[in-house]
Amino acid sequence: MLILDDWLDGVTATPDQVLTDLSKGMGDMGGMGDMFMRMGNLLMGATSDLLGGDAGDVYYPHYLINGKPKADPAQFTGTPGARVRIRVINAGSDTAFRFAIGGHTLTITHTDGFPVDPVEVDSVLIGMGERYDLQVTLDDGVFPVVADAEGKQDRAFALVRTAAGTAPASDVPVAELGTGRVGTAAGLSATASVTLHQASPDRVVHLALTGGMEAYDWGINGRRFDMNDPLRDAHAISMGERVQLRIRNDTEMWHPFHLHGHTYQHANGGPRKDTSIILPGQTLTVDFDADNPGQWVAHCHNIYHAETGMTTVLGYQS
Fold this sequence. Notes:
By secondary structure, this protein is mostly beta strands. It has helices at residues 15-23, 303-307, and strands at residues 2-7, 37-39, 42-44, 47-48, 53-54, 62-65, 74-77, 83-90, 97-101, 106-111, 114-121, 123-126, 131-137, 142-149, 154-161, 182-183, 203-210, 219-220, 235-237, 242-249, 255-259, 264-266, 272-273, 275-278, 283-289, 295-300, 311-316. The chain is built from two helices and 27 strands.
């Protein structure tokens, strides 16, 4: 298991300090162009075509694999020719990672714990909260295990060793990151064993992701979540219903959307998941069966967006 993370606590700031800085708003960023720069705890100009523009807004001094920075990388050993299954988890707060192993092809077998029809890729884009299971057949040598902080011009780094040899440097070019074979949920299909049975939705819930960096007013359907009145804007569902969520991203930034208490399936036979990347201007349509009564939070898995209002509740009617 590989856990990817972005880390600043106790180094450059605390998460609470970053939240305070962000909550002041970024103002009108017009004229910044493609400038990439650090301003205190924040980043300007971190962009990614894969993420549809703004890649993230927090400066991190460290990106980690299994808790270790690239200056002291985690190291894994194996046998040439061995087929290995790896579960990769993005535990970060504000960073999507593009994961690859130098000199190797990856086969996606599961996402968020559910099997998919296998797909061969060179790298995998993983949003905060997402999990991917990958199979890889190890070659002979010492290879970089890289999780590029997408759009942030830095990376997490580890090593896998199957033979003696000199370890590559942490900034070694990794060809697999430059190819077009990038694995995302959009290219995956659930296996028959986990595909939801065909049914028309009993209820359709529309969620618009709203707000922006200028005022840092992230919300859902134009409202910021009220922690003191969490059921103010709750969306009612009932036990036994097939519920369809239509989640529209009306912002200029990508969001990893997460639903608690349930798993859903992407439309048109897509993967079973509980966390999905939604790019700016796009709508994600998913279905799930209401079979777990309670009051369940749904939110952006960028912790700073969730904390400042991009959160709602799906509540079962009694």
